Amino acid sequence: MNRITLTPGQRGGRPCIRGLRISVYDVLSMLSSGMPVAEILEDFPELQMEDISAVLAYAADREHKVYTLAVQ
User: What is the pLDDT of residue 65?
Assistant: First the structure.
């Protein structure tokens, strides 16, 4: 997960990719709207396939943490 960075003041403190001004949300939004990965990489040449994978892993990890409930 070292590709996902949190920098105070950058993009409102949202998680970004490798310190770039491209947030995890931006990439997830593009993917969820049906934009192909190849097109994202073409439109944002500073991104790499590993960044897309890191975004998905980061989102999956956050989703897991949000909905994990302790059983009593």
Answer: 76
